[in-house]
Amino acid sequence: MKILSIKSTVIAASAMLFATGCNDLTDGFSTDPVNITDPSVISSESFLTGAEVGLIGAYEGDINRLTGMWSGYFSGEDRQYIGLGNYAVSGRDFNGEWAAVYSSVLKNTQIVKSRAHVAKNYRALGMAQVMEAMSYGLAADLWGDVPFSEAVKYPAITEPKFDGQSSVYNAVQVLLDSAIANLALPVPAAFAASNDVFFGGDDVAWTKVANTLKARYYLHVRDYDNAAIYSDAALGIDDPSSNMMAPHGPVYLQSFNLYYSFTTYDRPGYMGADSYAPKLMDPAEAESRNNDKTNEEARLNYYYFPGGGLNFASIAYEPNVLADFDWGSGEGYDGFFGGVTSFPLVTYEENTLIRAEALAKSGDFTGALASLNELRAYYDAGGYWSAGYNDDFEHLYEAYDAGDFAPGGIENADNKTPIDALIREIIEERYVTLIGQLEGYNDIRRTDNLLGIPVKVGSPSIPQRLLYPQSELNTNKNVPTAGLFDATPANNTAY
Amino acid sequence: MSLVLAMISKTKLNPNMKKILLCAVVFISCLQELQAQQRTVTGKVTAEDDGSTLPGVNVVVKGTANGTVTDANGNYTISFSESNPILVFSFVGMTTKEVAAGANATLDVQLAMDVTQLNEVVVNAMGDVVPKDRLGSAPANVGGAAIKSSGETGILNGLAGKAPGLNITRNGGDPGAGSYIQIRGQSTINGSIQPLIVIDGMPMFNTFQDSGNGNQVDGVQQQSRLNDINPEDIASVQLISSAAAAALWGSRAANGVIMITTKKGTNTKGKLNITYAGTLSFDQVNKVPELQRTFGQGTDGAYVYNTPRSWGDKISERSGGQDTYITSGAGYTGYTQFADGSRRYRISQKNSKETYDHGTEAFQTGHYLDNNISLSGGNERSNIFASYSNLNQEGIVQNNSDYKRNTARVNASTMLTDKIQLLANMTYSGIKSNRIQQGSNLGGIFLGGLRTPPDFDNSWAEGTYYNPDGIATPNKQVTFRNTNGSASNSGFDNPMWTINHNRNTSNVARVLGNIELNYDIASWLSLKGNAGVDTYTDRQTEFINAQSAILPGGAYTEQTISESQFNTNLYATGKKRFSDKFGGTLVLGFNYNSRQFNQVGAQGIGFIVPDAPANFNNTDPGNRVPFNLASTIKTAASFADLNVDFANQLFINVTGRAESSSTFGPEASSMFFYPSASVAWQFTQLMANKNLLNFGKLRASYGVVGRQPDPYLNLTTYGPTSFVESWGGTLAGGQYNGGYSIATTVGNPVIRPERKHELEGGFDLRFWNDRVTFSATAFYNKTTDVILPVNVSPSTGFATKVANAAEMENKGLEFVLEPTWVKSSSGFTWSSTFMWSNYRNKVLSLSGAESVFLSGGGFSDGSSRAVEGQPLGVLWGTYYDQKEDGSYVLDENGFPKLAPGEGVIGNPNPQYRMSIGNTLSFKGVTLYALFDMQAGGQMWNGTRGALVNYGTAKSTETETTVSAADAAAIKTFDGSTIADAGRATQNGDGTYTFRGTVGDYGGGKVALDQAWYLATGGGFNVNGPFVEKANWSRLREVTLSYSFNGPGFRSATKLQGITIGVTGRNLALWTPYSGIDPETNLTGAQNGRGIDYFQNPNTKSILFKLTITY
User: Fold this and answer.
1) CA angle B765-B767-B769, nearest 5°?
2) Among residues A51, B593, B794, B1072, which one has the fewest Cβ atoms lying within 10 Å of its Cβ?
């Protein structure tokens, strides 16, 4: 008995020795030797750049192609894209875009913002706010009600509630107001301006973009007065040099234009452009919008490659993916979907057309026409497309006059009221100018498909929204129910 | 004692080493006890039949608790006070003997074999040999010969069908391809599901390296590192499947432990044994998907140049002869001239009726030659075993698919003194392999091959392309989507081109060795120290030709993956017999394990000079991507193992392991405890009549094992921004002034190990003097705290959090029946082994997540997932929407519509598995046949799903004739009718014939033709209809061998024996599965199961073997 108790004591003692010994052998090896786990070693501007890259992804990525197929910009030609183009979608098709908004942009802008207040880095704060406004605006456009007030607050809030679309649009305006105010404050000496891939930290350009964005989102809620105010040249983007453009480079899986990566490298042949938009621009087609004052040939060829043949599809049109570095197409011949072609996020062209539409919808025919003609003058002088296309192809954008929109005029063959005819032309110009951009899809829903973009057989309309992503449905009980053809609240009233 | 402690603490040792020493000393001291000493007897115990010494024999003074155990040389020393005691010598498998000590100071004893008892020994979790009949669990043992006889070049595949409850699925038939191994069902969700491999007491890596994308849906078939070991070196492999038996490995044992023992030298009294074993194998593809050869490239029943699909014209209705080429003028796009001088231009009209077999065109009869030589020998004190092997395998793919393995091994042991034994095992493996692209990969041989229209000749894979201006481009790849070489992109690589131009190599060098020191301090106390290392580097290169569709412009990746592991076990074993009816063994031990992983490499994309040697400088500096990864895992544990036996019939084992690891989160408990207990009762000891049932044992056990978290899950990471959109397009922060982002996975500082609790019971019976043995086991286990990347609402900004979030259970039954049917006096024997096992796995909780994508789970459409309430790995994807009553939701034309979401579409888990092995032997001739089967289980045939869309699947060959009325009424998917769709031909009698079938989904007849298969009926849009039954039965192995080893032969040849044999492997396969051998999986040895998407097929073989023993 005695022996046993001595034994137990020794065993217990040795077990204790082991307990401490074991920990000492394993402690201190729980930190990743390769990856950063302490964010304080990363500058705010690096996170700002990270958010910018995310924003480019959100505005340029797959949702753009998907809604582009619905909008008559592209056609699904192979495999999954055939179904997707025919509105055969499920929640999982939208996981990526949703994550782009909430993770790739907002999570990083949040880090920038939380530090900016401490460091009084109002420049970074303002830029972050503009990107947040663009992200929430995008989400509200595409899904209607989305998380805002409770979003990006993990772990405090694990299932964010969904705020009403109108409150999100309001919040977007507040964010933009705050951004404009912050951008006006002095820039801190330590601010690494070069990290800003859009404007190199230029507060003036960012402020113009913020105003144009205000106009964009006012337009989306049919507040034409405010849309006209903020798209005024005094506030909004008044010059193409202040366009917010996503830069791209010739490195696959790193800096390629995402359209190019998809159409030429990742999934050649999936997506063509046997669709409405190129026909609208092609003088040879019945749908052509060319007239005595308009010749779209150069712009058509910049966007589309008639006859196909680039990605071995022989169809009527395919997206113009020419890039000098890959195709040897020559300087000045990069297509809109080319590998290094910068992608527009917010532009002078859009700003001018917002103003034109806002004024027209407010009944200001003259002001609206003046805005439209301002843009046509810019196009006539060469426009935004690669210069080579103006050398090889015709382009003509003569100013319209009131008579062109009078019953029987070249833009009013079907005898609408002149203001309606003008509105139709502005929307049509928006449709063409915004090829490949989400605003084109927004317009179709906002205007009750005023242009009559073809709807796929068997469907009641062009999809009115994106489905809520499966990833959110799986994890958040607050997700509202909405079908593909249920209009978002902002589009529930007639145009 | 205290002096020793003080010495250790003052010595300048590395702190870790000091701790280890301290621990050991404390253990020794705790086992010390005083002994009375009056008179001493010493002696040696040997076996009666061969005189070999018997270590571990219990020697007890009858009627007392005074006892001892013989040492490694069979020697014992026992002291007692009685004047003339009876000494009882007992040893498992031997008849117990009682001898009066008398006045002798020396007493040597011989024990006779107990013929009524099977003397089977097994290896326990510590690597010690223990009698199986005393265990409270049922470990399965596979002998080295059985592994070798399978004809597989790797150990893993050699185990298939040879142990109950073991599921082995190979990645495919490529040389060196790894395998998935699973014992008793999957007990975790996203962590490694592979068991711990312990070789000669030393844990070894069995890493499965994925191609870097973490999912392995493309790339090449990777190796399993266990296959680095030469199968010829294996003495036995043992599965420790029960948690109780494995609990001493704590948080590494959740998936069971495989204990491998290598061959050792024996006491040959100084003679040298030399064995040569050679194997020559011929291998062929065993099953390929069925393809149609009736319709050609094109669409809507007409030929279309370069179109990806085969919905073209009927080949038999062509005129025959050469195709009509466009050799000039409109549509002329140049031509390619092939090596034989023939030219191919753009085709304007197909005339040729020739068709080609794209299922088998890239294959050949593969072969391997395996040469082994081993030397062994020993005397009473020392022994040695040395071997060298060379395996040279050419795969079934015609080029760049091979596997060359060289191994060398030395295992030696010696008695340094009478008390101290030193053992050392060391092996080196060098492996060089070329691998072929497969899977969801534009350069995969099946993806490009099976999609090729039957009327396109892939053997014309490259030539010199002349453009319309006559400018030549040499060595241009030609594919069915680039028929005359004029396009810049090939679409898919021609399989006959990819096997010659895309290269992927692996070059492994590995050293695995350990040293073991045994010290018999006293007759009742021994110490054992075992320390070893396992270290390898795998240098992999991948060269994607500039013309490959995988990555136009080409790419070169080179990386070195290295892992090294240091492991040490120290333990003290104390044995004590309290009486001849009651004794016990206590082991106290310490285990320290450190694992280091490093991966470093770089990729250069886009060659400046296309056909230059692999050199990163041949790419633009902006296109070079270096990468490195590293991790360290350290585990330390102390353990105890107590065995007690009562009355030679009741055996109790209790173990415990207290463990800490660097991978637990800093805020989690730093120490986790893994207990186990088992009991075995040989109830036949109570029975007088053993004529029918000569042995019976009941057993029961309970144990807890675990799985460590992967390293660094405790922290959230921040890294260079990489925006990856759904279809692969990527924006990298590095190209945008250095953007950084927070990860989408949030760290978990309280992460702790998973724990599997298992209760097991069973019995082992032997009848008619061991002529029939039967063993049955039932178990239930529940894994709690399963580590899982739990989806977090993406609107929180994170996508996942790794948490101890899930629970799952497994329950199962295992039976093994081994009758010896015939055992005639003439020498003829016939014995069989039936094994049957089933498992039911269920995911109990996923913390609310609807489904979790498994690692290696396949594709976003067509995946293997964890779903609450379902078995792990269920197939998940899109399916046709059904109403409550089970009827389909139809569109206006009567075709089913896709459900808006995704759901469970199948279950890859088998209902049960069974194998039947039969051995017939007569004199030197042995015939062995192993049938193996899996009942139930499904597979997602994504290959067929795609081929249906492409119009090359056999099922798209069917033509259907309908009446004129039906043709006008039956709708096609595009809203037309058979008559109007333009794809049917009207026959003379007014009927219509179209390519496709008539189906009915509940809304009346519909035409399932091209329009349907290109849309909702094809595999790119729906997954559910392509889930197929994947049950199989196979003649896994047939071996016929003859041994010459009679006395006459021996004296004539001076050889001990020659064995010649022929083996058929996988000779017959019966399965309803329409694709390749269903015992494969696209994503390899990862957790996703049942995925078939253009992976390379499996093989069947004939092998010839020669073994010469000198």
Assistant:
1) 125
2) B1072
